[in-house]
Every structure is written in structure tokens, then in C-alpha cells.
Please model this.
Amino acid sequence: MGKTNAIRLLESRKIPFSLKEYEVDESDLSAVSVAAKAGIDMDQVFKTLVLRASSNEVFVCVIPGCCELNLKKAAAAAGVKKADLIAVKEILLLTGYIRGGCSPVGMKKHYPTYIDETCTLYDEIYVSAGVRGLQVLISPVSLAEVVEAEIADLV
Model:
């Protein structure tokens, strides 16, 4: 696979990471499927969700792949009254990535980012490398630094 914006950014900042390829199942892009196909611990796979606040601001939440985002907690973390997930058709336009390959690293524009506090339970977590079929294994501390994220209770 070629280099994605996420990989280029991590390399340019000399942030340690490794990559894990997996076979993509177009009919199931879930984090559970990713973990199974890649042979990695489901608890360490985090998914990237893009939200829009009622005030129209866009922000990003990174949560464990097996969990559902609590929209009230996400809004509270972002300091807004209410937020909802963006429409799937907006993902590419806002982030430069497609559904199932949306990385919190290297989006077209920097958005406020919040990573669920469970990331601190692990030395390293997996997030999308910016394309379906490729995951980045990175320390949550390094991830938070590179995307300027806050750690928050999101699930």
C-alpha cells in the first residue's frame, strides 16, 4: 500500500508507529471485522468518528471499536450543547478520507479531537492509517500529541 497523509505526517514528525495490513471486507467495515481480519486485540482497535455540533462546528472522537459513542459525553467534551455524527457522504469532503479508512491523523483540516480515556489502558492502540486495509499501531500519548487531542470520557 502507498503512503497515506497519516503515514506521511507521522514520519515527518518522527513519531514511532508500526503498520498492520488486513484484508478488507467491503460488506463489513466495522472495527470488530478489522480486528478479526488483522488478527489483533479488539480492545486496542479504536475508530474515528466525525461529529457536527448544533453550532455547526466539526470535531472528532476516537473511541474503542467495540463501543458506541455517547453523544452527550462527546458534546460535553467539546463544550457544546448537542452534537450528532456527520452524514457518511460528508466524510471525504471534511476529512479527505473515506468511511472505513478515516484516520484521526492527517485530515484535510485540523479539527478539535477527543480520544476516549480507555486508550490510557494500553501502551499502544490501533487507528486507521487513512485507507481501508491498513491500521497504525501507535502509543495513545503520541497520537494525542500529533492530533492535539484531549483525553475524555466518551463512551
Notes: The radius of gyration is 14 Å. The first helix runs from residue 5 to 12. The CA atoms of residues 110 and 147 lie 8 Å apart.
